[in-house]
Write a structure and sequence with these properties.
Layout: E1 6-13, H1 24-38, E2 46-51, H2 60-74, E3 81-87, E4 90-93, E5 96-100, E6 105-107, H3 108-116, E7 122-128, H4 144-155, E8 159-164, E9 174-175, E10 180-181, H5 182-192, E11 202-203, H6 205-219, E12 227-232, E13 239-240, H7 243-249, H8 251-256, H9 270-289, E14 298-303, H10 314-327, E15 337-344, H11 354-359, E16 370-377, E17 384-393, E18 400-410, E19 413-425, E20 430-443, H12 447-455, H13 459-462, H14 464-483
Parallel strand pairs: 1-2, 1-3, 3-7, 7-8
Antiparallel strand pairs: 4-5, 5-6, 8-12, 9-10, 11-13, 14-17, 15-16, 17-18, 18-19, 19-20
Helix pairs in contact: 1-5, 3-4, 5-6
């Protein structure tokens, strides 16, 4: 299983010279927020372009193409996914639907090609604009050439969702009481509606399209019929319920599946696992916050996401986590930790004797295919919750370091792993992980585990001061050698 990074380009335009709109910028901002809150998009992977009267952007096309270039630098083909959202004017002409940027009309088919060239694993198009759903799907009105175009970019991914506000002869409506376009409003409501999520706390594109189509058509008096097509391979989780949402969704279920059953081992269902995971997370987080360190020349940065960590050799840490879990018989459930065997084709090295040997009839064999093990963590899995407290030194005279822990679910309960490591200087910034120290605490899903957490001394964190003295001593010796004239 590969790790999917989710990217998005979101555009909302209000300040058209002719027929300005009211709520497209609000639509765009709210879509960005809901993707972060519910669909596990990260803000640094979302490129939002908005234009309103008090902050007008005329070069929308240039900003859009720049966003594509920035995404391309980090995008992994056939592994990452992308969503394109547009709120603004649209028009059906020249035999196709187009969206209106300030500087030009832009054919929706061009957007397909732009994004399809990235070869996403999944791709989503949400267009809240008039006349937007024309000749973009393999419907009866499309030609064979149109079908081939659609099939080309569908073949480049494992799934596509098209969600267009209306048909070619219809207008996309705004609703002043909601401060949204009607279709966008119901898209947002679908992701907010806990009851639409399945028993695994997942919301699929199919459920979204059903909700949006029905409610948009009904609210508009059937004057605005969304054009929707969903071609997703497998059971794709578009959005997820948080543990807080789980608790809100059905209080009776949570009471019935309390983590405590007559003071002994409780239920090992999803809700109970998440419940005790969150409680332990809060307790350990507070223990780290209470640690007193005499540090003045440091900036402290907190991370709850592996992918945001500013360390250049992060795979070393990932490998240790995955390998240790299996070596210590603390292997995760639900495919949190992943080991993949990957083929590595090595290019043959040039040998200056090669032409002579070939001329003499000797056979030069190219190095054959080799294999290597790649270790991964499914960071999006709700059964894995990390925390990193990075003490970043503002001077090279002192060593940077990190206090961290993560909680993951295992067969017999869950595991709390606490670790510390030094972050070495690479010549430009503190980014190299060294001297990893880790302690694992396996725990059952019961009340005694919470009491055990309260009583943990967490010596690995409390001993950080002595480690820091040693690390800083070594740093001073390194600097002295560098400055020495001997």
């Amino acid at each position: 299983m590969s790790k999917e990074n989710r990217f998005a380009i979101i555009i909302g335009i209000n300040d058209y010279e002719s027929s300005p709109l009211n709520y497209c910028v609000n639509d765009a901002v709210q879509v960005k927020d809901i993707l972060i809150q519910k669909a596990r998009y990260y803000s640094e992977n979302i490129f939002i372009i908005t234009s309103r009267a008090d902050d007008s952007i005329r070069d929308i096309t240039g900003r859009y193409l720049e966003a594509l270039r920035n995404i391309e630098k980090r995008f992994i083909s056939k592994e990452d996914s992308i969503l394109f959202y547009f709120a603004g004017h649209g028009k059906y002409f020249n035999n196709e639907s187009q969206i209106k940027f300030h500087d030009s009309y832009y054919p929706i088919s061009n957007v397909f090609n732009d994004i399809g060239n990235l070869e996403p694993r999944f791709q989503f198009y949400i267009i809240d604009a008039c006349q937007s759903g024309g000749k973009v799907l393999s419907r009866q009105e499309t030609t064979l050439e149109d079908d081939n175009l659609i099939q080309n970019f569908i073949n480049k991914s494992s799934g596509v969702l098209f969600l267009y506000a209306c048909q070619t002869n219809e207008q996309a409506q705004e609703e002043s009481q909601k401060s949204h376009g009607i279709m966008t409003y119901h898209f947002l409501e679908a992701l907010k509606n806990d009851n639409l999520y399945d028993t695994d706390s997942i919301l699929t594109p199919g459920r979204i399209q059903e909700y949006v189509s029905k409610n948009t058509a009904s609210e508009s008096g059937f004057n605005q019929i969304p054009v929707i097509e969903n071609r997703i391979t497998g059971y794709y989780p578009f959005a997820f319920l948080s543990s807080d949402s789980l608790n809100r969704k059905d209080t009776e279920i949570i009471q019935a599946n309390s983590i405590i059953t007559n003071g002994n081992i409780g239920k090992y269902d999803q809700i109970s696992r998440i419940n005790i995971q969150d409680k332990i997370f809060e307790k350990i987080n507070q223990k780290i916050a209470d640690i007193k360190l005499n540090i003045d020349e440091y900036n402290i940065v907190e991370y709850n996401d592996f992918e945001l960590l500013p360390f250049s050799n992060l795979p070393i840490l990932v490998e240790k986590i995955v390998v240790d879990s299996r070596k210590l018989n603390l292997e995760s459930i639900n495919n949190i930790f992943i080991t993949e065997q990957q083929r590595n084709y090595r290019k043959p090295q040039y040998n200056f004797m090669q032409p002579i040997l070939v001329a003499l009839g000797n056979i030069i064999e190219d190095p054959g295919p080799d294999f290597f093990i790649k270790y991964r963590i499914d960071y999006s899995n709700q059964y894995f919750k990390p925390y990193f407290r990075f003490y970043n030194s503002i001077t090279i005279k002192f060593v940077s370091f990190c206090l961290a822990f993560y909680i993951y679910q295992a067969k017999w309960g869950l595991v709390l792993s606490c670790l510390t490591f030094m972050v070495d200087w690479d010549g430009e910034e503190n980014s190299i992980i060294r001297s990893i120290d880790k302690i694992d605490y396996p725990l059952l899903i019961d009340n005694e585990s919470l009491s055990k957490i309260d009583n943990l001394t967490l010596s690995i964190f409390n001993n950080i001061s002595s480690k820091l003295v040693m690390w800083n001593k070594n740093r001073q010796e390194e600097l002295s050698k560098f400055l020495s004239k001997e």
